[in-house]
Design a protein that fits this description.
It is built from 8 helices and 7 strands, in the order E-H-H-H-H-H-E-H-E-H-E-H-E-E-E. By secondary structure, it is of the alpha/beta class. Helix 6 links the parallel strand 2 and strand 3. The two termini are 21 Å apart.
Length: 230
């Protein structure tokens, strides 16, 4: 039996949700679209950029012209990278926790963020070499709560090492929790985006990784099915 820990990225490895919110709202403002920070955190948290822009355009009654969403996503990405280049805070204890986890388990990052953003954060955290598999918005067409990203990560891990596999998920958003449930994995939620009381459906809730060890996630490791199609 091989164990995998499937980490989300935003709000789990890097505490960058305020940067995403700022970049997203700035691009919307340039397009004459209004969205408040409270609306962003209530309705958009855990969604990838494509879904966020599609949802906003639909809500405003604007047609989805081919290429428009991709252009908006690219503009938002440039703004985010400029902000992250100045300051990209890490979730407390994340780097040490991931490195400790990688000593005995396979570590995957499964996120709706683009690969270049994740690469920047893992490099800043000094843990790129501890991660076996990365699944990004460049790899899957849907965002959580669809579990496609988690399933792809497991498939890529299993291509390197035959199963059976057990998995646990580390998330910070409710769509991420739903995706973890869909694959049958246990789920640790970090209260970096929501209040801890809002995450009561999770198996464990922590405020950060500080003073914690990956062995605490042992009871969350559940055997999961792996689709071996490539």
């Amino acid at each position: 039996m091989t164990d995998a820990l499937l980490f989300d990225y935003n709000g789990v490895i890097v505490a960058d949700e305020p940067l995403h919110c700022e970049a997203f709202l700035a691009v919307l403002a340039e397009e004459g679209l209004a969205l408040t920070r409270d609306e962003y955190y209530a309705e958009y948290l855990g969604l990838d950029d494509r879904t966020c822009f599609r949802q906003t355009l639909y809500r405003d009654g604007r047609p989805l012209v081919p290429g428009d969403v991709a252009h908006l996503v690219a503009r938002k990405g440039e703004r985010y990278l400029a902000l992250a280049d100045r300051s990209l805070p890490l979730v407390a204890g994340a780097a040490a926790f991931v490195r400790a986890a990688a000593r005995t388990r396979r570590v995957a990052i499964v996120s709706g963020a683009p690969r270049r953003e994740i690469a920047l954060g893992l490099a800043r955290a000094g843990i790129a070499d501890a991660v076996s598999v990365i699944v990004t918005s460049d790899d899957v067409a849907t965002s959580k709560p669809d579990p496609a990203g988690f399933r792809l990560a497991l498939r890529r891990l299993a291509a390197r090492e035959p199963g059976p596999w057990r998995a646990a998920v580390i998330e910070d958003s409710l769509p991420g929790l739903a995706a973890a449930r869909a694959i049958g994995a246990g789920c640790l939620m970090l209260a970096t985006a929501y209040e801890a009381r809002e995450l009561a459906a999770a198996d464990l809730v922590w405020t950060s990784f500080e003073l914690h060890h990956p062995d605490e996630l042992g009871p969350l490791l559940h055997e999961v099915a792996v689709d071996r199609e490539v």
